[in-house]
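Recall from the previous lesson that a structure prediction takes nothing but the amino acid sequence as input. Here we apply that procedure to CsbD family protein from Limosilactobacillus portuensis. The sequence below is the only information supplied.
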Amino acid sequence: MTSKKSIKNKVVGKLKQVEGKITKDKVREAEGKAQETHGKAQAKADELKKKAAKKKEELGE
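The prediction returns the following tokens.
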């Protein structure tokens, strides 16, 4: 399951990107892209942790 923190980072990052595009603020847009990417990385890490735990359980460890 994706964590609330990763979802928040993806949404807030996307909002910052849109804000940056509307206001023509390249720095704000880049901050948003970075935050959205961070959220995606968090979601992927959560997914991998879950898979690893499942595999460990299957192996009986």
